[in-house]
Amino acid sequence: MTAANAQIADKLKFNESGLIPAIAQQHDSGEILMMAWMNRDAVIETLDTGRVCYFSRSRGKLWRKGESSGQVQKLIDFRYDCDQDTVLVQVDQLGVACHTGRRNCFYFAARDGVEVVISEPEVSVEDLYGKK
């Protein structure tokens, strides 16, 4: 851990659970890929390694994006908002970002009062995680 990265993490405002929302955006297209949570350790690891790391609330531990699927996010730029309570990670996404096999997690749309699925999976969940 570098002192500079620890100082950046110390500036951020984590919620009562020690988490901060992190939005992942494809750096060259501007596409919003996903939203996840980071804790202080995930922020520091992301800054130190250049590979995006989140905190999995369901597993209760650090989650290195792509560790089980191979769909890695390489950090291009790390930003935070004016209130210092939301993080934007601009990334180079290798493969799909969503655990459903879609390019991004935002595939539901409200259109004329109806929920519409606007993208289909690019890869099967079985292929992503080796499960049936």
TrEMBL record:
Which GO molecular function annotation, any one, does this entry have?
magnesium ion binding
Catalytic activity line of the entry = 1-(5-phospho-beta-D-ribosyl)-ATP + H2O = 1-(5-phospho-beta-D-ribosyl)-5'-AMP + diphosphate + H(+); 1-(5-phospho-beta-D-ribosyl)-5'-AMP + H2O = 1-(5-phospho-beta-D-ribosyl)-5-[(5-phospho-beta-D-ribosylamino)methylideneamino]imidazole-4-carboxamide
Quaternary assembly: Homodimer.
* Signal sequence segment: none
Q: In the UniProt record, does the keyword Magnesium occur?
A: yes
Q: What is its main location?
A: cytoplasm
Where is the protein localized?
Cytoplasm
The name under which this protein is listed is: Phosphoribosyl-AMP cyclohydrolase
Where, in this chain's numbering, is Zn(2+) bound? Answer: C82, C98, C105
Q: Which gene encodes it?
A: hisI
Keyword Zinc among UniProt keywords: yes
Listed InterPro entries: PRA-CH (IPR026660), PRib_AMP_CycHydrolase_dom (IPR002496), PRib_AMP_CycHydrolase_sf (IPR038019)
Q: Which PANTHER family match?
A: HISTIDINE BIOSYNTHESIS BIFUNCTIONAL PROTEIN, HISTIDINE BIOSYNTHESIS BIFUNCTIONAL PROTEIN HIS7
Keyword vocabulary terms for this entry: Amino-acid biosynthesis, Cytoplasm, Histidine biosynthesis, Hydrolase, Magnesium, Metal-binding, Zinc
The Swiss-Prot or TrEMBL record lists the needed cofactor(s) as: Zn(2+); Mg(2+)
Q: Which residues form the Phosphoribosyl-AMP cyclohydrolase domain?
A: 34-107
Q: How is the cofactor bound?
A: Binds 1 zinc ion per subunit. Binds 1 Mg(2+) ion per subunit.
Query: Which pathway, per its entry?
Result: Amino-acid biosynthesis; L-histidine biosynthesis; L-histidine from 5-phospho-alpha-D-ribose 1-diphosphate: step 3/9; Amino-acid biosynthesis; L-histidine biosynthesis; L-histidine from 5-phospho-alpha-D-ribose 1-diphosphate: step 2/9
In which residues is Mg(2+) bound? Answer: D81, D83, D85
Give the species. Answer: Thalassospira alkalitolerans
Q: What is its EC number?
A: 3.5.4.19
Annotated Gene Ontology cellular component terms: cytoplasm
Q: What role does it play?
A: Catalyzes the hydrolysis of the adenine ring of phosphoribosyl-AMP.
Q: What class of enzyme is it?
A: hydrolase
Q: Which family does it belong to?
A: In the C-terminal section; belongs to the PRA-PH family.
